[in-house]
Amino acid sequence: MTESRREISLWRFGDEPCPYTLISEPKLTLELERLSGARIIGRGSIGTTACVSLQPNLLPENANQDRYVVREFAIGDNSLEPESMWKLRVVFDGHLGHQTVDHAAENLPRMVESRLQACTSTDSNLVSQVLSETIQAYDDSLLSDLYSAMRSDGQNPLSEEEVRDFISDCEFDFGSGGQDYLKVLRCMQGTTVVLVLTSPDCKDLWVASLGDSYTVLGLQRDGHHRWEAIPLSSCHNGRNIQERERLSEKHPNEPEVVIRNRVLGAMSLTRAVGDFHYKLPQLYTDRLFMNVEPGWSRSEKRFVNSFIGRNLTPPYISNIPDVRYVNLRLDNTIGINGKERRMCLLMCTDGLADLYEDENDECEETDMFRRWIEVAAGSESNGALALLRDALGGTDEATVSSMLTAEIYDKWMDDTTILFEFL
């Protein structure tokens, strides 16, 4: 027998034993592959990207809001031969709905490609500037779309009557395609962005970070079997003291700008695409966002009402990413000296770190990063899938089965997306 109903007690399932279905091998591995959409993009061993994205709670309201994109393109006079292609990988961690993250996954990578192709040079500083400006421009376009839909220049507040008329038009428009309605929703939701770009010879690498997803570089040097793990992304949340200080400096007379490591006591992220209830004056939330139907759920509206009175001098959430350039042949800032035998790249949403939460209390974050690299690099097939399996319980069939089949209405784990490749 490969399946049987059991109960398990794990902290993430609550105080009571949780019913689940025990799945034995080899069916357990196949089920994890299916639920996570495990796949490998590309050919060969170097340059292929292993991908997984998982939310095991299959209720429609709990559907996975992570997205990822892997694409290649030529810049300038480069041919379309594989050895001449630039490679772009982008991971998004959406929240409050699917419209913003879907729109970002479809449009932001294309904007990056288009703007890079228009460049007259691939100087590292210029490329860094393009990546930063493109992410900001994409976020700005969401606001421009909102103003366009509202027939507003964004300078003069709309009256209550104008907002009611606009919402009425939105509802009618929603029934016939809903473009204005969707433009509003994309401002009411948000997503993080972490982006990695590599040059055709894989000598140059750029990382653009907006939010709290991760990018980790793995190095294995000549004469050593041990992997080193070097985080390349920035963590933009309220636990980051530099982010808290930045917010305090921008809002000096607002002691409640960060409460319990959350922006306005609510948002853990300090930088993101969308989330304009943190970027626009309160009246847009009160008059527009709160009245769009279907829009935020009742619980989401109660949550917004709990903090929106602290919105005094927006914006509070930034759309400016951190961009980092790395020379993969020689970069003294991270110890690359040309003696590296192998390199690899791992990108993931913060759901992966959450799955290691018990261990995070006992080990340094750098040790967790190294474990990620060692597990993924040690796989003979899909390194992202191997790491996901490790995070869910590894060889413990009962724990992994419970993480996939727990009979609970609410989410018991965060959406988790992992990309892994050798460079």
TrEMBL record:
Which SMART domains does this one have? PP2Cc
* GO terms, molecular function: protein serine/threonine phosphatase activity
Q: Which CDD domains match?
A: PP2Cc (cd00143)
> Domain named PPM-type phosphatase: which ranges?
48-423
- Signal sequence residues: none
Query: Any idea what this protein is called?
Result: PPM-type phosphatase domain-containing protein
This chain's source organism reads Collybiopsis luxurians FD-317 M1
- What does UniProt list as this organism's lineage? Eukaryota, Fungi, Dikarya, Basidiomycota, Agaricomycotina
